[in-house]
Write the C-alpha cells for this entry.
Amino acid sequence: MRVVKEATERRIEILDAADELFGKKGFDGTSTNDILEKVGIARGTLYYHFKSKEDIMDALIERYNTRLIDATKLIAFDKSIPVYERIIRVVRALSLSGGSSNEIMEHIHKPQNALMHQKIQRAIYSNVPPILAEIIGEGIEKGLFNTPYPKECMEMMVIYLNTLFDSDIIELTEEERSTRIQAFAFNAERLLGAKSGSLTEVMSMFKR
C-alpha cells in the first residue's frame, strides 16, 4: 500500500536522507537514485519537491544557515549575558572555534562537501557581522567600545577568525593557535576602541 505523506513531512524526509548520504559519500558521490532508494519514493515525487540534486543541496545549506543564524541571534539578543561574553558565545555558536553546532560544521568541513562549506561561509560573512554589530552598538552606549565602524570591524573579525580557526585552510600547532588568539585580542581591542586588556577573558574562552 502506497504511503501518502504531507508535503512538508516528505520534504524533510528527503532532506534528512540527502544529508546523511552527502555526509557518507559526499555530494558528488551521491546520486538521485541513492536518495530515491533511501527514502523509498518515485522519481516524480522527488522532482515535485526539488528540481535537482543541486536544489536539494541548496535547501540543506539554507537549513544549516537557519540553525546557525538562529543560534547566534538567541545569544546576541540575550542582554542578561555581558557584552564581551556575548561576542565570544556568538563566535563559538558558529563553531568558528568549536561550539554547539560542531556536529554540523564537522559534516560541512569534509573534503567531499567543499561546495556546501563555501556556501555556508558566504552566509556567515553576510549575516553574522550585522548581528555582532548590534552587540558592539550596545557596548558603545555603555562606554566599552569607541568605533564609528562597528559592522566593518565585525566583518574583519569574523573573516579572520573563520579563516584562522578553520583547519581546512590553516593547520596550527597549539602554540601557534595560542599566539594568534593573543594577537587577535590585542588587535580587536584597537579595532573596537576598547580598554587595553579588556578582551583577556575572550582570549581565555578561546583557549578552553
Notes: The radius of gyration is 20 Å.
